[in-house]
Amino acid sequence: MTTITTTGLTQKVLDSRPPHPPVAEIVEVQDRAAFADPAKTSLLSAATKVRHLTPYIGTELVGVQLSTLTPAQKDELALLAAERGVVFFRDQDLTIDQQYELTTHFGVQDRDPNQVDPRHVTILGHD
Q: Which pTM does this prediction carry?
């Protein structure tokens, strides 16, 4: 006795193509802080003074201009902000365009709907 089993895979099924292109694989990018020197040597050496505002949260970096940070210093800033919660810089010379450029280093940006200028952004996460 011969048994024939069918899978239902006809030539029409095999020739069919999905209506939309395949979704690109999502590769999670690490936070910029993951690339930083844990000692934050480059960033902290650029400061004339480092003030920890409380033992647990808040640091002020005196003498650092955000407009001149190197990519390594930006990564170290991401790590310092993650560790201390907030980092303060006084007397900055950044233009709005330089502020926008600085934030692109840290992740995906979303325009704040309450702002008229599209360069006012919120960082959502990673690229």
A: 0.69
